[in-house]
Amino acid sequence: xxxxxxxxPGLALTLMMVGTAISARAQDEPTPEDSTRAMVQQPSxxxxxxxxxxxxxxxxxxxxxxxxxxxxxxxxTFESFxxxxxxxxPVTPRNAAESLMVHHIKGENGFAxxxxxxxxxxxxxxxxRIERWINAGALLDEGRSPREEIQKFAASAESxxxxxxxxxxxxxxxxxxxxRALELYRKSGLKxxxxxxxxxxxxxxxxxxxxxxxxxxxxxxxxxxELTRFLGRPVGAPLIEAQxxxxxxxxxxxxxxxxxxxxxxxxxxxxxxxSVHKFTAASSYVAVVDPLKGSDEPDSDRDxxxxxxxxxxxxxxxxxxxAGPERTLVGLATQDLVEGLVGKxxxxxxxxxxxxxxxxxxxxxxxxxxxxxxxxxxxxxxRIGWATKANETLGDQGDPQDLRAMGFSLVEWLSTAxxxxxxxxxxxxxxxxxGGNKLDEALERIYYTKSxxxxxGMWGQWVGTAYRGLVGGR
Length: 474
What we know:
This protein is mainly alpha-helical. It contains 22 helices and five strands. Strand 4 (275-279) and strand 5 (284-289) form a beta hairpin. Residues 1-26 form the signal peptide.
């Protein structure tokens, strides 16, 4: 059994930082502790009590526990929790001071301390939440069944943290995410204070001119709008919640970037890797190595190319691109942002998330030769064994680089060829929602193919025709 701080470390950190931000106000305003308590106005069993029962109490208080016969107290449902065990109901509604549960968790009036063991005591904030809930009537949240398992609706640490962030002003919330971003950045071993830039959904940090970081967050906002539109997200279901932000970490050298990945993700990067991402309920970030190594030159060719006359296809322009870095900062960040968000919001197959990431990135760096490299890699599979590689791809198997190249070719085919383009967004949305489990059904219903083999053959024919002119060298 653990203390609440150990059960909800993310929330504790957020509330600590929130308290720091609020305490900087005038001295006659509430203290950080008062402000923290004020964040939650109305007690909620699902939010305030259920997480404690699930994470601290249910290990012993369930019918399968070896100690169950001793106490007879089952906390797995709200109904069984209120019924209590051999000693009776644990709560006296609207009277926490007379409730058995409060006596036990405080170890007062001769009652045995619960949870047992000196290292497992509940913290004062956890006890206060239980008392407030009891004094408010000890009610179950509206819409919940008292016979439903508590663990199914107990608020997670992340949801509690999001709710706490939602109570803050935009300025206070920005401070919280800046603090988080800087803590992540320090995992690289870098000590110097980086520049920062904050937008509606992003906070970027790195040793770059601030103008470039601001440009980066601006471009990320554009990509977010485009991706949201493509995925057909309904109103009220944003890709990034209003109280959340994605951190974008920018490094100018490969060594600190690698140190960061080793520290935060406990893995070593491939030599050619220049970007990574992590999108979880607790933390969302993109980390990138700046191809321009921190210079103040522009790093996106989207606007520059828009001013030029169109010269053939994107693939031909890429072959004529001027000397310089193969990728751009915005392109690298876009690739991992899209791949991460697509993977987070549903059950997307990796090949689709990778393909969409490259497809969206190509839009912001259309002159990059990187995409011709991917096309050549896909084309080469026609020589090696297309059917085998395509089946591996649709099953999310194989080398990650091959998976990315094949995923990109699939997305490029379906999103650009006139016969397949109109239906591609729907196809992608189905795969993201179902995780590829209904791939064959989606192929038949959306693209009218009789079999996966037929679809793979059509895909291969398109690659053979569209990419044939790229075969000669890299």
